[in-house]
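User: My advisor, Dr. K., asked me to get a structural model of this assembly before our group meeting. I'm new to this, so sorry if the format is off. These are the inputs:
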Amino acid sequence: MGDFRVVDSDAHYMEGLDQLVDYFPEPWKTRLLGGSKKDKASIAGIYPISTGDRSVFGRIHRDEFTEIQRKAGGFTPEIIPDVMEFLGVDAINMLSQKMLTFSRLKGDDERATLLANAYTDYMLDKVVDPSEGIYTMIPLPFQEPREAVDLINRCAGEKGIIGGCFVTAGPEPPFGNRKYDPIYEAAEANNLPVVFHAGGGGIDEFVTAGYEKFIETHVLGFLMANQSQITSLVIQGVPEKFPDLKIVFQESGVFWIPLMMHRLDTEYLKRQSEAPLLTKKPSEYIKEMYFGIQPLEVPDDLSHLRHVIDMIGGADRLLYASDYPHWDYDPPSAIIDLPILSKDEKQRILAGTANEVFGI
Amino acid sequence: MTQVKICNVAQLPPGERKTIEFNGMSIGVFNIDGKYYAALNTCPHRGGPVCTGRLGKELLAEFVGVGLRVREYYGDSPVLSCPWHGWEFNLETGVHLADSTIMLPTYKVTIENETIFAEI
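Assistant: The format is fine. Below is the predicted structure of the whole assembly, which you can bring to the meeting.
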């Protein structure tokens, strides 16, 4: 876009179950087809979403996205170049839409493993195309770590696979627990970055039930999901156990990061014996992680944003991420138009960090 | 540097500690298994009486294997914990266990003619 190369580190592939059904094993394929060939009510509930109207009851709409899909006859892999052209990005990392529901799969958690495998196979078969800058990440089924390891070992070597992705809402215990060690070990061994991505599934009830508006559950839910996981990862010493593992957090903006750094440091000074694996302060581990910028908070006084970026280690820590086509997506201009960043810093955020993390 | 007399060795047997006043400062002196230590009795955090705090060892941990519980164990160095907020210091070096840039002043302890001195 203009003078910049742009890599979108987080857009969403809005896969429907009708697209994935051929990649499910039996008996699930028959179950899905028995419900409906379309991704409608009878089978959509297999991967439940949260309540709340993302469009603010019609106020937000994606006319260009609707038109792109209309020309293609629906949401198909063929629309991705048009989406990239609309966004003005040279490469795009598409994340499964349905994996965002993983946090709500409390009972029959086989569904997470099934979707993770079907989505990955479908994307490799029909969608990803490194020659066109189209990539995806393996959805990591945290409910079944052994299955996640098998999926990583099976697919991490594919050129179109550039990461493994956890949805941060809902895992019990949280992601610092040793039960997830095998996943981190496999990701590290395969040089596969692990992306911790906030998600809407379960935000209605996972902290405190009873919020009345989506703005409440979204502001808090996405944030608190990421806060809970970064706390668990750092205090349980995941970066010490797996020092070559690249860790990315996405979709909570950037202002939360210094909050966690300083809050964790303050308590670590008083309770370091509860984090005996650590060899440095929590903030120092966080400054070795990477963060998607979206949804970027833009205060009236931009010097405050500048301070936040400096506090977390500068532009080197940040990845441009659109979250398109979701309701609160950020176009590349969110970075390009910021007067507080140098040209080099903008290029770093727009593509340089993605190159360092994902190799694209 | 001043050689400050603390007490006779008989007055500070192993396992005991005492605090003295010197030039307006409170100093804690410890006998841990026959080894003597001295430190400023003012925590660099909020000024708490750190030398009245718990004496113990540093809790360490080892990653022993993927998926296994981390093995926790105690190191050898004596550790002093401030009772106000739990800031912990290596009593041999004065270094905060969580941040090596934070120091509790410590003082060299010598014995001459059965008398304990601290170099303050």
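One thing worth pointing out at the meeting: The longest strand of chain A covers residues 7-13.

User: Perfect, thanks a lot.
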